[in-house]
Amino acid sequence: MSRIGKKPIVLPTGVEAKISGNATDGFHVAVKGSKGALDIVIPKMVSVELTDKNLNFTVVKENDKYQRAVWGLSRTLVNNAIIGVTQGYSKELEINGVGFKVTLQGKKLVLNVGFSHPVEFNLPAGINAEVEKNQIKIVGIDKQLVGQIAAEIRAIKKPEPYKGKGIKYTNEVIRRKAGKVVKAA
Questions:
Q1: Backbone region of residue 125 per phi and psi (left: phi > 0; alpha: psi in -120 to 50; beta: other values)
Q2: Distance from CA of residue 147 to its chain's centroid?
Q3: Which residue from 2, 102, 173, 184 puts its CA 20 to 30 A from 110's CA?
């Protein structure tokens, strides 16, 4: 039994869930809330049913290891979508370095991070950014997309271990290395 998969999801007020599809083709769960709407595709072996504000997930074979894993994954994906359309997700990045800065121009981030040219990063639909001095906050309703965009921005200039210059997550700790030791003559 999947401990996560067998827990029902209680829909909060203001959230609608619509289930379409069938057990042979797979289910689609459309979640709609105050911040937007998301659609999640559920694998064929997992069944979903909506009973008075509760989403219940079941599988064909509860003892099959793969089906147990997909069972819990499916429930978690739908739960993340519900949290996304009610509260949203965010990731915060920090830019460290002399002369490093970021500006927001519409749906485009312009990063000056030590290259000979500014790097332009276009934000996809559904993702917004807030910039304040050397802080970037990525906001959206899709947890996977928010994390992916934050990782792509960080990959533009990863933090280096000697001075810590680069783009890092706000809560990330950079392991520092000692530089070269020069002997006195």
A1: beta
A2: 3
A3: 173
Cα 117 to Cα 122: distance, rounded to the nearest angstrom: 16
Model-level pTM? Answer: 0.88
Q: Which amino acid is at 155?
A: A
Task: Pull the structure tokens for residue 166.
Answer: 């680069």
Question: What tokens were used for 20?
Answer: 């379409």
> CA–CA distance from 46 to each of 23, 56, 70 (Å)?
7, 10, 8
How do the domains of the chain map onto residue ranges?
9-86, 89-169
Q: What is the pLDDT of residues 105-138, one digit of tens each?
A: 999 999 999 999 999 999 999 999 999 999 999 9
